[in-house]
Amino acid sequence: xxxxxxxxxxxxxxxxxxxxxxxxxxxxxxxxxxxxxxxxxxxxxxxxxxxxxxxxxxxxxxxxxxxxxxxxxxxxxxxxxxxxxxxxxxxxxxxxxxxxxxxxxxxxxxxxxxxxxxxxxxxxxxxxxxxxxxxxxxxxxxxxxxxxxxxxxxxxxxxxxxxxxxxxxxxxxxxxxxxxxxxxxxxxxxxxxxxxxxxxxxxxxxxxxxxxxxxxxxxxxxxxxxxxxxxxxxxxxxxxxxxxxxxxxxxxxxxxxx
Length: 258
Fold this sequence. Notes:
By secondary structure, this protein is an alpha/beta fold. The protein has a single domain (2-257), classed as Rossmann fold (3-Layer(aba) Sandwich), CATH 3.40.50.
């Protein structure tokens, strides 16, 4: 069975679908139970929605107990839950996302979800895999954990900056990549494989200028579709990648290759 956190998000849904299509029973976990249930109901196999806060140890312990009662084991964990900056007043976005002005509270909030959430879920749920001496953990990072953001992508045709990709996004995703290497080394002899999936940008009704700017920087000339990572998730979850651990699988249309 497989657990996907952040399961009701844009690519989280596709991760769930891909694993279910490959034969897994999936627990779709996210903050809103009704959204998780909707994802689970759309899947082929016996799957469940589960309300989960990745920053809350008790919430994750409840998820662990649920999975063991229903299935008796945990085979795959996809640490997909993450947050991007949200601002109440969009007009403040360009100023507040500048490094000089970036709020400490947003820095701390992103680290609590994007890094501490991965740590807690891996510690609590991954420990089951270590006891089983088999399992696969997939930590979802980003190309921006490998290379710096190109801030010119967010510049409007009139030359003004719509916003800046924040410092915390790169910092948290880089931390996830290094945490993956640590955990792969720590649990390697326990039969638990730990890898990172670093996706590129996904097209999701962004402004045309941004889509055009981003697409021009990829070798394939386009942004990703939300389903472009399904094969990578199945590969990392399955025995097809049985000799792969501590790695960062970059799927970005060639973004980081030139």
